[in-house]
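Lecture 7 notes: from sequence to structure.

We start with a single chain of 321 residues. Read the sequence below before looking at the structure.
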Amino acid sequence: MASTVAGVKADFSTQSASTNEPVVSVDWLHANLKEPDLKVVDASWYMPDEQRNPIQEYQVAHIPGALFFDVDGISDRITKLPHMLPSEEAFAAAVSALGIENKDDLVVYDGKGLFSAARVWWMFRVFGHDRVWVLDGGLPRWRSSGYDVESSASGDAILKASAASEAIEKVYKGQPVGPTTFQTKFQPHLVWNFEQVRKNIEERTHQHIDARSKARFDGTALEPRKGIRSGHVPGSKCIPFPQLLDASGTVLPADQLKKKFDEAGITLDSPIVTSCGTGVTACILALGLHKLGKPDVAVYDGSWTEWGAHPDTPVDTSTSS
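Now the structure, written as tokens:
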């Protein structure tokens, strides 16, 4: 297997995509779009205050043949926290309903450039599917490169997206679901919970990086969700996720990425856990670290929405003593 995702056009096959590299270019995807075992996934999701509807935008314009992955729908239905990781059985049922199989190579993109696609890339890796890549620059880069999009007011992909949400509902209600075409293999080292983060404050086994803005991290800006305190987990460091991207929403070259982590005092030689507001942009940090050869980064799924909502969790701010 070649170690790069690019190369001469004669070698532009899916086999030239290395799992050591977490992103592929729009040129690579365009050349491979009709490969039989390649599936493209639109994983667009937006912050509530953006007032954008990802499923409607998908219907207007998406990469030809792309499936729609509902970040809010394919999630844990027990917790009150938004879009948390579902159970293995629920994820397998939902992904099977989308028509995805273990043999498939997956390329995930979103409508912002590189945002929620990283979350879905991480989700598939948590459940043991390593042959997954993020489209560098996403749909904006695809369109600016002059590549075609398609629209569908209804159709197979919309039905599959609905079926995926229905399958999850059935699993959590203990009802039978259809045949499973996707087998999960949970990777617990890639996801952290509340107690692990609390324990890490004392033990410091992992460097903790927060992907939120500096103002939210410092506690000088209010959180976008009500009832959540401002500040950060004691001992954590702040690398706002946009620092890892260029103006077009593509990941910075490795040398520039490395500089961002160096400047924040993060060493690649020690374990790392990332967090953010609700576990979405923390995955961009994990993706950037994967690009630097560190594929074992954990993401704190509940992130600040869980931590900041607890009345008794320790919280630091820029004015903390």
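The chain has eleven helices and ten strands. Keep this in mind for problem set 3.
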